[in-house]
Amino acid sequence: MKLITRYNRVNFFTTIIVMLITGVIYYQAISWILAYQKDKDLRDEEQEIFDNVNLNHHLPQTFETRDQHISFSPAPPGSVKRVFLDTTFLKKWDKDDLQKRRHHRGNGRYEPARALISSVTIDHQYFKILIVESTVESEDLIQLILIITLAVVLLLLLILFVTNRLILNKLWKPFYDIMKELRLFHIADNREIPQLDTKIDEFKELNLTVTDMAGRAKHDYKDLKTFTENASHELLTPIAVINSKLDSLIQTENFSERQSKLLNDLYGAVSRLNRLNQSLLLLVKIENRLMQEQQQINLRELVEEIIAQFDEIFQDKELKVKCTLSEKEIYASPYLAEVLLSNLISNAIRHNHKGGEIIITLTQDKLVIQNTGDGIALNDQKIFTRFHKSSQSEGSGLGLTISRQICENFGFSLDYQFQSPFHVFTVNFK
Amino acid sequence: MKILIIEDEEGLRESIEEYFTGDGNVCETASTYQTALSKINLYRYDCILLDITLPDGNGMNILKSLKEHNHPDGVLVISAKNSLDDRLDGLNLGADDYLVKPFHLSELKARVSAIIRRKTFNGSNLLLFNEITIDLLAKEVKVGKSPVKFTRKEYALLLYFLANKGKVVSKNAIAEHLWGDGIDMANNFDFIYSHIKNIRKKLMEAGSGDYIQAAYGMGYKFSEQ
Asked: What ipTM score was computed for the predicted complex, to two decimals?
């Protein structure tokens, strides 16, 4: 839920509730005032009757008006108690109002009314007085007031909604800007999160924190990378020493079979260590984008060259290699392009079985390398991560990581699929 | 041949010196920038192995000094930095070759031999070993008078052996020399064996002696019996 939706919802409900409560109070107050007014009218009328009786010593003549009705009736003395009450009032239709007479049965309609029952004594004769006054006009008034109030409430809500939307959007803009920057943030690139132009303290602080955090993350990442690079560099010399000492050692001759086996294992381990170290260095360089020298490369020629390089190994493993290569040129670092192709093809060899098959297809859009191997799909999430490798693999565990990095560097994508019995690696040039 | 080894790492310096000494070669060493600089100003060498990361100075300056004085010494730059920039810098400054640590001594020897060959036999492109003659320009091998056809890799391997004659060359070194670093997918080097077998067969069929011996399953040695 968006903040603005949430905010609007809360705002909407509280406004409605408050408005309803005030509406009720308002209604009650007005009703009370109007009822009070009506009662006062009734009392005035009563007083008038009393005055009239005192003056004339007979009952006053009564006129039926549209909204007032006064009647007198004899009653046993002392039987009437003075009381105000709500009642109804039969409002007769006007004589000329034929329309209404035809549509409605009866000769009028009932309207709410207020009545006062009182009594008067004239010449020892006791009369009950009934004064009824229609309250329809006050009701109308209340209704009108209610409608106006409701309209105002609705208008107010609408205005609130619109202004909130505008103001909130404007107010929160720095927030969304920061979000956008964060989404663009990449730990490896040189882009800094810019300072936002905002006067709101909270956003200023947020911006500051985010910039600070990004800076620290980048710094730490750089430290880590430098460390990897330095460590790999420092390892080169001892590896070189071991290598040269081994080369010197085998010159001393007269080895037993056991010794030469040990020496062979040592050679193998050292060259693995060396490859691993070189891969790490290469990875750091690619990530730092230190290999930027670019030129036009004919991919078909490069693939053919690498295949020729691996010729003996194809023969040794009895691999069938099928190539369908069309002319394709890319503009990229030749060194990295060679590493990429060499990695992918040597993977296809390494994870193949004797007598297996490798199919290389180069089109304008993509380079597809398919190889047989053990017929189990690889986890395409994991294979591109560092040091992920099958248990029997002799590789460094960095080949695919490097390949993917190179592809990213070139603006290509590298994907894996399993299409039985082939493992398929696809470089999309896009 | 007179060779100067400028390398600050003692272990490496000793190994190189040991490997290169003998077979008519004389080695001198320098472990610091200053000694190296004074040596190249006093003496001439057929080839200088130059480590560019020295504790008290940049090896590149030694190279610059050599070129400023127009000294003809061959220079092979050894570096732990496998960056193209460094490589290009070195070659632009006039180095003859560039080798990245770590390397096999046999590879180093082959490179140094190539440099010396280019420097010393000005014009002559023939490499001789007993009855074997190799024309380096035409890339042709003859035993006595009869030419022998070699594939590209076999030819490269033969040259490698000749540069390292009398030394045991490990299979790893051969594999890396012929296939580069991409060779890591094969833990048995059977295909090297078939190359060697072919070279021996071709040479002996043309009437040469059997000069290549397997050395304890670790490598091969090219030498007179």
From this structure: 0.86
